[in-house]
Design goal:
Layout: E1 4-16, E2 19-31, E3 34-39, E4 52-61, E5 63-69, H1 84-97, H2 102-117, E6 121-127, H3 132-145, E7 148-152, E8 154-155, H4 168-185, E9 190-192, E10 195-196, H5 204-217, E11 221-225, H6 229-238, H7 245-251, E12 261-265, H8 271-280, E13 283-286, H9 288-293, H10 301-306, E14 310-313, H11 325-343, H12 352-364, E15 381-384, H13 397-407, E16 413-418, E17 421-422
Parallel strand pairs: 1-4, 5-6, 6-7, 7-9, 8-10, 11-12, 12-13, 13-14
Antiparallel strand pairs: 1-2, 2-3, 4-15, 15-16, 16-17
Amino acid sequence: MDDIKILKGNIIYTKTKDEFEICEHGYLVCKDGKVEGIYQTLPFRLGGEPIEDHGDCLIIPGMTDLHIHAPQYTFRGTGMDLELLEWLETNTFPEEAKYKDVLYANEAYAKFAKNLKHSSTTRACVFGTIHRRPTLVLMDHLERSGLVTMVGKVNMDRNSPDELREGTQESAEETVEWMKDVQHKKYKNTLPILTPRFIPSCTDELLDMLKMVQMRYQIPVQSHLSENLSEIEWVKELCPWSEFYGDVYDTFGLFGKDTRTIMAHCVHSDEREISRMKENGVFIAHCPESNMNVSSGIAPIRKFLEEGLHVGLGSDVAGGSTENMFRAMAHAVQASKLRWRICDDSLEALTSEEVFFMATKGGGEFFGKVGSFEPGYEFDAVVLDDSRLAHPQELDIRSRLERMIYLADEREVVGKYVKGKEIDLS
């Protein structure tokens, strides 16, 4: 017997980055966890099915956060006067070292998973720490949340504090043991993703070993790329044989092609790097608030979109101050305006349609057919009640969603579905 769900409300989503698809007071039909269709008038064959009537609420696809650091959630909103490398030394590494303590990790990750569950995010790619057991604790909490996530045990064998630096062989072996643990736990919604932190913290020998792990378990990869000018110069010193930053990952088979890959930031990617990312099908996680907070710069997202690259959004907590993907969209628009005005007037500012596409279908594509209400897509949906944001004027559906991009938080999220299953937000 088919599992049918029908939501009624103001449905809005994107098929392409250029325009919204809107069905006012329409019906969104889910069949066996996937979108069956959208109807202005419900077909006769569905007449006997129960309807969840959300009145005048907006119904949008669930959002994908392509880049977030779970252990940094505890200090979000602090240390925002520092540049990236100093910020890592001062804030990030001391905090991540605490996660060796499983009890501390359990308390911190419980709060992280709870808040992510109540946000507009339905899918996320998450960094843990180097610690195997605490990373499993993170995965346990996310599995209970009902969200679909990819979680990585971080790898670091150089240029990091003693308490966060693994031996090269140890790092690879611990990753294999972590993968065995993940397979034993048989998670339904929580998947592993290989996570070398970034090139400055990973030797060539470790990257070579991690490629062997990737091939053995056929898992995707996430890391950082061309975020900061000092970082890029550091990579040149560490890997003088490389053509550019991304070429290091590519040399070890960790840069797309047959390996699904997310690279966060790409603020200062040159033409060679952009071309290689396009050729290899690398996904870019644009993290605009983080790029501003730690003084990295403004990524040329308009160029990436025009080149046809895969681009999604990341909150990048705690470089970013919040897991709220509406804020990530607003920051993406604002940053693009600054780039257009200050740096390059050939790249027009991003539109609401484009950043919404990036937050839903653009980033969701990393997980498959995710992030749209087109037939056959996995049924991830968020119901938004914007009645708190009172206004005297008549607003159309697009204008109401645009207000959400700039004003919404978890209070507007009153319903949430992942792969057709309703998430308990009580």
